[in-house]
């Protein structure tokens, strides 16, 4: 039936029909009904169609990946193995009118297996991915695009470089924007065969103005910059002091030496620790801000946190999951004030084995707020900051002894050391990039990391044993085909990787790359061959950490998954609250997991994009300096067009074009040796350390061109195929021979034997 027929059968008045339309739309979004041809509604998959529902994510060139919704009954009815085909490739021509992050319905076809006839393959190899085609847009993520306003005579349009819609968008309505300004546009109409049309919602400003580039990223990724008034009203009702009734119910840890260790500029302190050494090993208490006490299910505050999924840390600002009154206020574990926590108390043996765990609601009063630098100074033997409480130095040093044992055991159990260097861009008060530096992860970082990993694992194991529905952090086993491809890449860099389906061989490769110029490249290549960590309602384990049970428990201020885990843990506390928070069922949790995996991906892309924008801004400034700075670099690949390089100190990757190689001789590309050689005895090869400066920046294409700094020198101890003199001599001989044979002698055609054919 269509809307009109349903309305007549229900005898609805004209006033009630808008309500019917909204209810039908909600049922379609939930997958309970489907809208078929000519606007007629039917039960999902009643026609036996091969349609899947899920989210679409675009690649830079317009192709896309489609991620089916796990637990959707319509998807399950198709019979497709959703674990095997956890994503489908959508060619650019088949993406329809979908935009980044939209919820769509696609038709699909699976790879055809290879067929054999008389022992020989007669079809092409199996396609690597299942493919799909967008049939319908079920729900727009935002429907907003960012572009540049253009105008000719009275006609105005917006040019966008969005991978989903690269081109021109016609406008509905008037605008105050001036030609050349960046604008935010809402797509209103986009039918096949017609130009898309939209309406300008906001004028961001001129490209190049301070802050405009960051605002463009925020709108492009659909991130939220402000909180609705309904949410703010709920926040105002939250008391600024701890409820005395809660103080009486909880374990009182205010007289213990509980401390926080965070970045120096941190304002939202999620976690605190306490460590005690005894004859049987150590007792570790991990205190986590009890956000679940203040954020209750189905409130406006909870719904907003769920929609955001996580906090987003851009290069110049933070877009928090919770309003600052909570994230930086009553929930933050600041020193010298009472705060509510969820506490994991873990008994650890001298060998790093967990012997006992228990969980409780607690009350703390943090005794010290250390930065990573201050904690590292204590570990290096320096005194604690002036005015610190007695026993602080001893506890920090003992905590590192314990953490070192835990770390050693974790890697012995098969965990992979995939830690990548963190690059930070420093901005001035006008938001312009003025410096780039690498954040060193010292022992103080590792100390906190080991404590948090242990608490996360302990909570996940308890919830799994108790069969309590929750959200797990999962990292599935890798695709062995991709690992095989990566094996060949490692061999090209001179490594002997062995069998990378064996976790021990992977770690051996990582260890052999430590300290080498291509260490970052080897780690990055491995990460690309592994699957991406995500959230799931099932305990699928974590490959990278080598843990069978793992969840996120330690950051509920900035991650919604942790808040869900806290609610599930309430029933198993030694002092559970009288009224426990309700939890959704397994199917809804699967949807939560999919959603927050999507928001995490969007936040990560926004963070990386804003960092890259400011990196380019900084390097462009370097190129204009009278004496441009010199960067230590490494050759990461060698191609006909030039050298792919990385400035290792700042993590910037770019190209040294063949024409920008040092003058003084002709350069020859040797693909088999992965190098360029000159007749003067110079060479640049894969993995070689070089010094370089910025040549030019392409802001539109986001490319960096470098050049070799100073004069290139011959590389000692390297045998070229031919020395410089030999190369010149051979070229002269070749030229002389060519001149002698020119012009070519005329030849009479040879007579063919046999009878002449008519």
What would you note in describing this structure?
It is a single chain. With 758 residues, the chain is an alpha+beta fold. The protein has four domains: 1-43, no CATH class; 144-207, OB fold (Dihydrolipoamide Acetyltransferase, E2P) (Beta Barrel), CATH 2.40.50; 230-477 and 531-615, no CATH class; 625-738, Nucleic acid-binding proteins (OB fold (Dihydrolipoamide Acetyltransferase, E2P)). Helices cover 29% and strands 27% of the residues. It is built from 17 helices and 35 strands. The strands form eleven sheets. A five-stranded antiparallel beta sheet has the order 5-4-3-6-9, with no helix packed on it. Strand 10 (144-152) and strand 11 (155-162) form a beta hairpin. Helix 10 crosses helix 11. The protein is globular.
**Helical content band:** 25-40%
Assign the structural class, choosing from mainly alpha, mainly beta, alpha/beta, alpha+beta, or little secondary structure.
Answer: alpha+beta
Strand content: 25-35%
**Tally of individual helices:** 17
Q: Measured on Cα atoms, how large is the radius of gyration?
A: 31 Å
- Poorly predicted regions: 121-127, 716-729
Characterize the main sheet.
5 strands, antiparallel
Major beta sheet, strand line-up: 5-4-3-6-9
Large-scale geometry: globular
Domains, number: 4
Span between termini: 77 Å
Mean pLDDT: 86
Number of strands: 35
